[in-house]
Automatic annotation (TrEMBL):
Gene3D superfamilies: predicted glycosyltransferase like domains (2.40.10.220). Residues 1-15 have a biased composition (Basic and acidic residues). SUPFAM superfamilies: PilZ domain-like. Residues 1-28 are annotated as: Disordered. It holds the Pfam family PilZ. Residues 7-98 form the PilZ domain. InterPro entries: PilZ_domain. This is PilZ domain-containing protein. It comes from Alloalcanivorax gelatiniphagus. It comes from the Bacteria.
């Protein structure tokens, strides 16, 4: 088990095809939202590819469109937990704040017996 796996609170899943993710710094109303590729997801976080570095501890606002019928778009909030460029491509981990926005709906997707 790798060092990063030892700190995970919940299992990580590959993002299903068709997930789209729009991100904007929470205090960045003047910044254009970014469309990002979601690499993986868990009950409490998302792994994304990023076009540039983003500082850890940046609060972000997200709109996650899920591809399954009736799933729609969830409005989530989170904080950038880490950002690194392994192999020259920026990646970031976003810790979700499930107490805000559609956090309860996101969390419900990972309840036992629910396919995620």
């Amino acid at each position: 088990m790798g060092a990063s796996d030892e700190h995970r609170q919940h299992p990580r899943h590959d993002a299903p095809g068709g997930v789209t993710l729009i991100l904007r710094p929470e205090r960045g109303d003047d910044q254009e939202p970014l469309e990002l590729l979601c690499r993986d997801l868990s009950r409490t976080g998302l792994g994304v590819r990023f076009p540039h570095s983003i500082p850890p501890d940046t609060d972000v606002e997200l709109w996650v469109h899920l591809p399954e019928p009736g799933a729609g778009t969830l409005h989530l909030f989170g904080t950038v937990a880490w950002c690194a460029a392994p192999l020259g491509q920026w990646r970031a981990g976003i810790a979700l704040n499930l107490e805000r926005g559609d956090g309860a709906g996101w969390e419900a997707r990972f309840a036992p017996g629910v396919a995620s």
